[in-house]
């Protein structure tokens, strides 16, 4: 390990972390003299730092793994790194880390409404407090709902309108434990009642026999002249032959004007229904912005597309949707009682397609033969408590600050597919999705992931020059315009990553790219130099995947690359496939394109495999989908697979010459595309395992409980496909076996396995790279030989 003259610099620390657990510290300039010091913030009184050493279990020049002293009570800690070269700035550990705010009106909140804070370390075992301050006035609110990753504060009805600074405390650390969380605008309570008209006043027929399109459009236009209001539907069945769109009629959408809400007496007593169409309508109900649909049922069948679509300030509440293109037909639309549908003309739309700002979809009951939710570039969305049966539940493409919670989804056909947080529709960034307490069951079609990430993009991979804190030059022009499936469409909103060399482990949003010159939105903590390997591409991260249940599905949660700073916690797997945390590096023989997609700083905490037996099994290269058991898979899929421009032929391992050629160097350079992963308190009841595979650096597996399974924890080199033939059906390499000639850049490094618990297990530890891991059982300092694990 080199001796550094630079002062240690800390980039990130893994928390929440409890006493006698390992804190993973990433940064730079950690040499053999580096130590970790911890001080607990007092919960009251003077903030006096009582520094003590934390035992370092594993080190590299870019990471330290140290144990929080068992005798130190739970609380908010300060952490710093000391070496002969100096002492790093102190970082807080277990202090609230707010990532974003959301109110009951999107980016704003209403007096008498709510504001929520999302992030990590927001709550432990003491009351959490949200503090609002404005003009010297401070309002402290004990949270109505509190968990480690989310706080909900009910705002007083008499709270004055205005802008408020918010800070939060998890009950530890005294005044120093309050952390700024941003600003929220509070709106005053509305004092005027909206105008109301009934569709019956405009001649609507509630018997369902006559077309009511004109009456509904006239009611909306009357309210438009009054500045908005509510169109009411008394109990009845309202036939609509066209698409509802204010200002147009006949074969055009029912477009709801701004400020208008369609509101039924209740979804049980009011239905809007569309007869069969020879040509499918593009959408049934369309709004521009600021509209609502509430308390109605919507029925359609035959050929159709979207049911409701709109942009910004959309409210869809307590709506029942029944949209089945195969209604009363035979299998796959074959004729039955003179009804049929061409299979190729089946539904291609979405039950609800929305984009823009501030969208709410709550308490709906939806059955559709297509996808239920398509959330495109949505910001400040709230989708909650919906009951869904569909081919897919949700596609989230781009956007930020989305609450998606307490929804239930069951596949409505044998080929129903999964759900997606993605970089589709031209998105380069997706962040801050709170995906919590959703239940997904019975999806068997396609890749059938209960939740996956998708959409990819790399515009540049290589070295840099003329670096400064906030800019650098590339050695070649970035590639855009979709020259291959996984290159970038544009350079808008892209992210720069330092993958290896000086400053590795940092990522920053890119402000602009002018030719080969890159300017960052905020400076590096440690600037790269000519040793640094940098990529520029998409960003999908800082998501909270909390408390979901997957039953009879494929992957429970799959962080397909790129993915950074995601927390996957408290989820349950029942007859489902893997938890996958995946990074990828590949090259094309036919173009200059290189795919480099990182997986960094993810934490997999307190998940539970209830029943690990899942469908399928044994096909190694797609074990992330089939598997046959619920493996927890940390995979640096970084140099094992060649990818062509159609993303095919993923079966040729990169050679040393390939890797050296990527960076124009005589020797290959190890590029751990997966870094800084934490697996803690993972519980397995049966038929499951934990595996680290490929170019993964700095992974901690700690305090996990594994029972009733054949193999427990495996640490493996990336194995070319021909080497894997003949291995067991659990896709593990043979214990203690390392293929002759295995290259270092195919191997995991700096893996710590500590204090895990086993019961009725065949083999605790196995794998071709187990010899390179540190395996600790029991108290700190008692190390079991990796080649001779206990029974």
* Uncertain spans: 247-251, 618-622, 722-731, 779-791
Largest sheet: 25 strands, parallel
The SS-based structural class is mainly beta
State the end-to-end distance.
35 Å
Summarize the structure in words.
There is one protein chain. The protein is mostly beta strands and 791 residues long. The chain is built from three helices and 68 strands. It has a 25-stranded parallel β-sheet that branches. It has a 20-stranded mixed β-sheet that branches. Strands 1, 2, 3, 4, 5, 6, 7 and 8 form an eight-stranded antiparallel β-sheet that branches. A hairpin with a 6-residue loop joins strand 44 (495-500) and strand 45 (507-514). It starts with 8 loop residues before the first strand and ends in a 15-residue tail after the last strand. 54% of the residues are buried. Residues 247-251, 618-622, 722-731 and 779-791 have low confidence and may be disordered.
Question: What key phrases describe this protein's structure?
Answer:
791 residues, mainly beta, 25-stranded parallel sheet, 46% strand, globular, disordered C terminus
What's the structural blueprint in terms of helices and strands?
Layout lengths: L8 E5 L8 E7 L6 E6 L11 E9 L2 E5 L9 E7 L2 E2 L3 E3 L3 E7 L4 E3 L3 E7 L8 E6 L2 E6 L2 E3 L2 E5 L7 E8 L9 E9 L7 E4 L8 E5 L1 H13 L3 E5 L2 E4 L14 E3 L3 E5 L5 E5 L8 E5 L3 E4 L2 E5 L4 E6 L2 E4 L2 E5 L25 E13 L2 E4 L2 E14 L2 E4 L1 E6 L1 E7 L2 E4 L8 E3 L6 E8 L2 E3 L10 E3 L3 E8 L5 E4 L20 E6 L6 E8 L2 E4 L12 E5 L1 E3 L2 E3 L2 E3 L5 E3 L3 E2 L2 E3 L2 E3 L4 E9 L6 E4 L1 E2 L2 E3 L2 E4 L18 E8 L18 H7 L11 E7 L2 E2 L3 E7 L1 E7 L2 E12 L4 H4 L24 E6 L2 E10 L7 E3 L15
